[in-house]
Design brief:
Elements: H1 10-16, H2 24-33, E1 39-43, H3 47-53, E2 58-63, H4 66-78, E3 84-88, H5 95-99, E4 108-113, H6 118-125, E5 129-138, H7 146-151, E6 156-161, E7 165-170
Parallel strand pairs: 1-2, 1-4, 2-3, 4-5
Antiparallel strand pairs: 5-7, 6-7
Length: 174
Amino acid sequence: MLTSSDPTPHGVRAWKNCEPWLVYTATNQLEEYLTKDKSVFEWGCGGSTIWYSCRAKQVVSIEHNNSWFEKVSERVHQLMLPNVRMYLRGGNEYAEYVAAPQEFDEMFDLVVVDGRQRVRCIKTGMPLVKPGGWLVLDNSERSRYQPGIALLTGWARQDYQDRWTTSVFQRPGE
């Protein structure tokens, strides 16, 4: 179980230990939720990509930053993770980044919005979530994400708080 008592900066530890850079209690909930028959889509790759790959059937990750993409890709390759598909999408005011999941005709058990253009990604990500599946929004306390949160009216919401907030929304159904 992850706790916030470690003095190492969270982002450094998350990358080093291949963990999501989310509120710890949210990560603990994801640990319980994910199984080897579930699929994950994430905007923003990193330690989370590797962490999800150890717990899910497949992980599709979209990244906008070339140097970070290369660093994470190298680590995924070194660890030989065949269930990870990573894509670099940027430019066009992030239009390709936001629209990337439309390239795949898939729905996912978990959609994680933890990168750029989060309000636009929420809107694009909502139909990707399987009925009963989860959409995770990190840093949901930020006022600029409230228009995206408003789109999720009717979805069950659980907030996990520490120094920031990670929100888990469950799509109605099943």
